[in-house]
Structure formats: C-alpha cells, structure tokens
C-alpha cells in the first residue's frame, strides 16, 4: 500500500509507538541524571563522582542510542537505503563511544580506589554486552557498509545480524537493571526495604528502562512494520547480485 506514488505508507500505529519509546527513553535518561544529582552528588571525572559517569553513559549509549539505532529502519521508510544504513551505523558509533567513556570511568575509578574489577554478575554481563556490541558493529560494517560482501552472503547473515542486535540490546537493559540494584544495595543496605526515596526513584528508573526496552522490541518484532523495499533498491539488488554472482536475486 502506498500513500503517494513511490512512497511507502507508514502504518497508522507506528508513529505513536515510536513516540512513546522516545518519551520513555528521554525520561529514563533524565531520571538517571536526577538520581545521580539528587542522591549521588552529580558527576565529575575526578574524585568519588567519577563513578557516576558510568551509569549515565551506559544509559545514554548502550540503551537509549542503541535502541534508537535499531529503530532507524522502522522510522525512515522512504529515504534511500544507503542513507538509513549510514544513520544506523553512526548512531551505533556514538553509542559505542559514549559507552566506552562510561567503561573507562568505572575502571579508572576502581583503579584509583583499589577496588576489585569484574567480580559481579553485573560486570560480567556488562563486559559481555560491550564486547558483543563492538563485534556486532564490526561485522555489520564489513557486511553492509563496506563494499565487498556478496549478495548471498549478506542475505544469509542478515537474520543473525538482526537477532544479535536485539539480543545485545536486551542484554544491555538487563545489565543496567542488575547494576542499578547493586548500586542501591551497596549504599542503602537494609534501608532499601524501607522505601527510601532514593530506592523508589531508582526503582522507577528501572521500570522506565524496562519499558523502553520492551517498546523497542515490540516495534522491531512487528513484521508488518518493517521497512518495505523501494523499487530502486530492488533494481540495485538485482544489479549487485548479477555483478557478484551472475544471476538475479529472488525478491526479499
């Protein structure tokens, strides 16, 4: 179905779900800042406040920006495939850089304080998510942005790329929830069960992160909301496969 000649129609409910996801994500980022500012003293690169750089960067990078990168192919339905690929890749680059800053901050803080590294489930899941995210970006760049991979190889890898993208995103959300609970237990201890204001605010943050993750995943799993291939993309795909493999591609 097309709303104008050559333009794919946007499913009626899609913009509302996308807007809702952005609302949840932005509130989650703001709530993270409020939690760190009100109860953890704010953020700085030196002193005890250096640790607070870690949760803020991870929420912005590995959750909010990564989620937005996953939604690019749902939101930009009529732009050229090349444009959406570049935007998808750039958002992932920004997410990776911001997450790297958060990772460096926590390791540097632990080193200065003499604390142990990588002993908790949160840290194990976090390193796993970060490494998988980096590998996913490198492999995705090699297959989809760097000219060289054959049409059939791209087609075979695409389902794995989509699966691992969603899996890494959910792993990042789950890791953030583990870290949030860990931080609360370290500071509040038994007072956590007495509905301390910090605990209530952090619990709300956890619900916002979970809600953002579920909303993004729902948008991604709606098959009828996928970005339809444009006529010029199908022609380019046919030309590309003919050049690389000597035959015509089947419709996708």
From TrEMBL:
GO cellular component: chromaffin granule membrane; lysosomal membrane
Subcellular localization: Cytoplasmic vesicle, Secretory vesicle, Chromaffin granule membrane
Gene3D superfamilies reported for this sequence: 1.20.120.1770
InterPro entries in the cross-refs: CYB561/CYBRD1-like (IPR043205), Cyt_b561/ferric_Rdtase_TM (IPR006593)
Domain Cytochrome b561 positions: 20-221
Any one Gene Ontology molecular-function term assigned to this protein's record: metal ion binding
Domain of life: Eukaryota
Record's bilayer topology term: Multi-pass membrane protein
Reported cofactor(s): heme b
Annotated keywords: Cytoplasmic vesicle, Electron transport, Heme, Iron, Membrane, Metal-binding, Translocase, Transmembrane, Transmembrane helix, Transport
Transmembrane segments: 16-37, 43-65, 86-107, 127-149, 161-180, 200-220
Catalyzed reactions: monodehydro-L-ascorbate radical(out) + L-ascorbate(in) = monodehydro-L-ascorbate radical(in) + L-ascorbate(out)
Signal sequence segment: none
Stated role: Transmembrane reductase that uses ascorbate as an electron donor in the cytoplasm and transfers electrons across membranes to reduce monodehydro-L-ascorbate radical in the lumen of secretory vesicles. It is therefore involved the regeneration and homeostasis within secretory vesicles of ascorbate which in turn provides reducing equivalents needed to support the activity of intravesicular enzymes.
Protein name: Transmembrane ascorbate-dependent reductase CYB561
